Automatic annotation (TrEMBL), chains A, B:
Coiled coil: none annotated. This is Homoserine dehydrogenase. Residues 351-435 form the ACT domain. GO terms for biological process: methionine biosynthetic process; threonine biosynthetic process. The lineage of its organism: Bacteria, Pseudomonadati, Pseudomonadota, Alphaproteobacteria, Sphingomonadales. NADPH binds at residue 107. Keywords: Amino-acid biosynthesis, Methionine biosynthesis, NADP, Oxidoreductase, Threonine biosynthesis. It comes from Parasphingopyxis lamellibrachiae. Transmembrane segments: none annotated. It is an enzyme of class 1 (oxidoreductase).
């Protein structure tokens, strides 16, 4: 029997406990697959005394995670602390400097510091692996890095945040506006007490930046991801989208075209026949479009103890097998830099919802703004009766779907209407996924 | 720049030509990802003069593929000839004996001889890779071998034959019985002139045996795959299934349970909400259920020049990167053997269609057989009017869905009705996918 791969675990939250359970429960199978045992030797967390439902007594304990990297009985560190900086980043740097491999579930840290860490890992000839950082248990990092490696990827997009998808599909099946469903989701544990990172799209943006780098061979560029979330979605949007043949999803999308990079997290209308329209609840799913393979679709659990532990241990098995190369699929020096695309020139269809006062001239004002901005309207719906969510009796919803055109035209139309007395609130814009 | 990986290509049909095009078109990207160039040095096919739309002049030509393995300018052979034995198998053995890596798209050869070849590759410390053999461009071999490696897989199943799925979904959308749609599919090039391997489930069975071995760590056992196809499906089955909330799909399914292995390719009723129900046209899709990751779903093109070439070249990139281990995810010696499960003890629901003569006592006879066999009926439909496909005026269809029970009971009921004068044809049995 070959020597064991000795693992230090930093962070013993849900995922850390899951990794301990998995390595225990599937021990024999993993040894057969990895070609050698994978053993945890040391662990670290904030609170030693907390009951995590796992026996920590076989492992050395470190109060300070920073001590793990230097331990002589550790070959690889698995970081499950979280946070883009602080202890997680320090541990990553120390581990790679010590010439040891580093496995992480930390999307924020990879999105912000992945390039620096990839370069360090390359110089040290060790692995930097982060399958668990994107879409939990779905092996999409491997799928893109290796499975689709023969392809020029033209677009990669998907449902990257389970909390948002849970809320949107609950609004779909049970009705209700965003804030009601969020409160329910929090009560059920599907959304955090402070859900900002999830519902404002930041978590999805972290993952998207990673997928884009890996897919296009471009250096990570989190700062240029245009990011918005799901706070503005109301029950009427879901209902009107359905009537038009769509589902509402928070879609992270990246495209590479002529050296320009497009990255956006935004609410989209997804055609009912598109695979993303069937992704329900807290599932995640990713589509990659390659120039030879065509459309690949991956779906699975995007979070949770078991799925995330599955991805962390898959990385550990790769390390045990000695199967690891550059973190972003190619040597650090060969990643290109891309300018962000000029979004205004991007073409597409849009869904617009205006909350308007129900009085003469309003329709004329809005349609004139559209005409003056060169926006062509494909369909328009105005339902009679008040729109209660706007809190005023005379407010109704006006829904429009535009023909395909440059995004700058829609932005121009909205600019023309800014401050209009006809509007009872901010217009809602969603893009239509025509892929 | 590192030295090129030098590839010999055996077989220049659609896929072979696709590999040449892909390596040419994505050359620079592949070199960045693989860390070194991948160059074809020699090719072989039956007919040198045929126009394949690619320039063969840069490559050495061998009339006999057997000569490729021994060439000094070849590091790895990609076999795209096909056939479980004959030249493909000889070339595989010669290549591995010569201590060179072997990449193949040949599902029949891997299903029949994969174990022998895996052992040879292991002894020679070279790669045996076959991503293209299962589900074309979908990286499911890698997804199971590595992505889901941390999991005990309890079941793996999916739509493994694009021709069958095309025919079934055409029957769904356009109507018509199997034979009409097959003729159309042949005219359009979606089905072969001799479609036996596809429509009788043999191609799917080859792929299923490979997936099962990889998923469960069991030695390949193609002979124990219970295999049937789609010839018996008629328009009424599709319509009745739809009325009951299902789609009809040819599903290859494998389960491992207590050292017993279940492998079957059979028409199934798939609930409308199941991901396999959305798989349309010639797409392939695979579901794997892991004990930590839960349900993973992969979908994409299962055949064709581009997708299959994508998978072949992904394997070549792995070889170029030096990332390859045991062919079936664990060393040859650690694969276990399993006895086939006793299918009769397997529990499930079944769909039954009887073509019956429309006269007194028929219903009583059939329901009595069900009762005597301990089959409990969940729902039953008899539509008035003739069933024209049986070619007789007095024949109608009787459709039943059973409650969950052991499969042997349904088999017993059908046995009791064998030769009955009430039946105008063979009963049709489909299993219901309740996963």
């Amino acid at each position: 029997m070959s020597e064991a791969l000795r693992v230090a675990l930093a962070g013993l939250g849900t995922v850390g406990a899951g990794v301990i359970k998995l390595l225990d429960e599937n021990r024999e199978l993993i040894e057969r697959r990895a070609g050698r045992p994978i053993e945890i030797t040391a662990v670290s967390a904030r609170d030693r005394s907390r009951d995590r439902g796992v026996d920590l007594s076989p492992f050395a304990w470190e109060d300070d995670s920073a001590a793990l990297a230097a331990r002589a009985d550790v070959d690889v560190v698995a970081e499950l602390i979280g946070g883009s900086d602080g202890p997680a980043l320090n541990l990553a740097r120390d581990t790679l400097k010590a010439g040891k491999s580093f496995v992480t579930a930390n999307k924020a840290m990879i999105a912000h510091h992945g390039l620096e860490l990839a370069e360090m890992a390359e110089k040290a000839k060790v692995a930097l692996k982060y399958e668990a950082a994107v879409a939990g248990g779905i092996p999409v990092i491997k799928g893109l890095r290796e499975g689709a490696a023969a392809n020029a990827i033209t677009s990669v997009y998907g449902i990257l945040n389970g909390t948002c998808n849970y809320i949107l599909t609950e609004m779909e099946s049970a009705g209700g506006d965003f804030s009601d469903v969020l409160a329910e989701a929090q009560a059920l544990g599907y959304a955090e007490a402070d859900p900002t990172f999830d519902i404002d799209g930041i978590d999805a943006a972290h993952k998207l930046a990673i997928l884009a780098s890996l897919s296009f061979g471009t250096a990570l560029d989190f700062d240029s991801v245009a990011t918005s979330g799901i706070r503005q979605v109301i029950a009427a949007d879901i209902a009107e989208a359905r009537a038009l043949g769509f589902k509402v999803r928070l879609v992270g999308m990246a495209e590479a075209n002529g050296g320009k990079l497009f990255q956006r997290v935004h609410c989209c209308l997804v055609p009912r026949k598109h695979p993303l329209a069937h992704v329900a609840g807290s599932l995640n799913a990713i589509v990659a479009q390659g120039n030879f393979v065509g459309r690949l679709f991956f779906e699975g659990a995007g979070a949770g103890e078991g799925p995330t532990a599955s991805a962390v241990v898959a990385d550990l098995i790769d390390v045990a097998r000695g199967e690891y190369g550059p973190a972003f699929a190619m040597p650090f020096a060969r990643l290109t830099t891309s300018d962000p695309v000029n979004v205004g020139e991007r073409r597409g269809r849009a869904y617009l919802r205006f909350a308007v006062h129900d009085r003469p001239g309003v329709l004329a004002e809005i349609t004139a703004a559209m005409r003056d901005a060169n926006v062509s309207i494909e369909s328009m719906i105005q339902r009679g009766g008040a729109a209660p969510s706007e809190g005023s009796d005379d407010v109704v919803h006006l829904i429009m779907v535009t023909h395909e055109g440059p995004e700058r035209c829609v932005a121009d139309a909205l600019e023309r209407l800014r401050g209009s007395q006809s509007l009872a609130g901010e217009p809602m814009l969603m893009h239509i996924l025509d892929l």
